[in-house]
Amino acid sequence: MAPSVIPPSITLPLPLDLLQSVSETLQQQGDTGMTATDAQTGANPAGQSAPRPQGGLMGLWPLLAIGAIVWFLIFAPERKARKKREEMLGALKKGDKVVTTGGLHGQIADVRENEVIIKAGDVRLTFSRSSVQQIQGEDESA
Fold this sequence. Notes:
single chain; about 140 residues; alpha+beta; SH3 type barrels; five-stranded antiparallel beta sheet; 3 helices; about 35% helix; about 20% strand
């Protein structure tokens, strides 16, 4: 049988404020007649008010503020840009000069439900409506 080795105890220095709070608690317990068991179970023989619980709704406000910031900085502008693009794609008409996402510059020869036929030089090409990036002549930064 191997001898059991007991590790030496480690002593850590305690912060001064922790030592002071422990000594104050011990003094209060001595003054009120509370035992250590009474203090752990929450017994209150002196009729003192119980400490108020922390948190509740006050801990929720920072989370709500962060959520609102994320909404206004990320999601709302994205939604606005998507709506503007959908309006632009819905307003496509024959004769508009457009640029596709692939960089093709041309003029719309025909508009169908999900397709546009773009004339570039002497060639007519069929693209999906969503491939139109912008209408030339409209202000891109607005």
